[in-house]
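Page 47, continued from p. 46.
Same chain as before, 288 aa.
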Amino acid sequence: MNTAWLGLVFGACCACIPLGALAQAARRPAENPIELKTGKELLRGDARETTDSARPGAVPGADTTFPKGPLGDLLRAHLLAMVGVGTDAGQKYQDAENAYQASLRAVREKGPDVVKLLGNAYARTPEDQYFRRWALVETLRELHSPDAAATLARIATSAIPAERYKNDAERSSVDEELQIRVNAVEALGELAGRSEAAEPPLLELARSPHIGLQRAAIRGYLAAAAAPEERRSRSARLERLIPAERRSLISLETTDVKSVPHPQMPEKFEIDKRRRPEGEPPRANPKR
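Result:
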């Protein structure tokens, strides 16, 4: 998870503000101060119920899904750090990626108790809060803990609810649900070979009618092979499970973009010499 881009965007926005405007803001009268929330206020969040926008950058809501106490507070703060929200005691903006990584290290140190709380939070999160549900799965994934395999398997193999937005051409709840489950499947693939609970759901999902889930499951199952002989054995097992029209997914490989040869580019582009004459632009017939 890379949240450093949030800091870059903020910096770019600040660069566009004239110095005069900044000076005026600094001289803002006391009766109209700029209000900055403290860390405690950010953790408390907004008590009103909100509908998740399912867009990256949205602050996860429904903080009550975590219990009161140090561990619940830690997880609430971590979900805020995931979207680049957080200030230090001096109200200075932190580097988003460094803040996230520091929070992640603190969460990992808490062990299996974190997995249980994240699983419970996922179960209590309303269905339409897609981004928050994805964020909970992403946190489970980033733990890199075999203890999370059973919870991830339940999420990955859960039934996909019927489409909620049938009359909205720009949004699909099924797509949102698939993104959450693909993330869980990829997390299981990373745990395969280290957890007995990780591989059975991968084999189950290798037969999924949803090609995104199927591709992620196949890739994760094959990647868990410790040697070429084991990979061949796993491939043979998948061939017995998967219909012939989709067996090409077994041999599908990804290529690191850094290893792809790039074409030789000229030092200077002479666009005018390459451009063909366009002639006169078309004209509309005059009205008669």
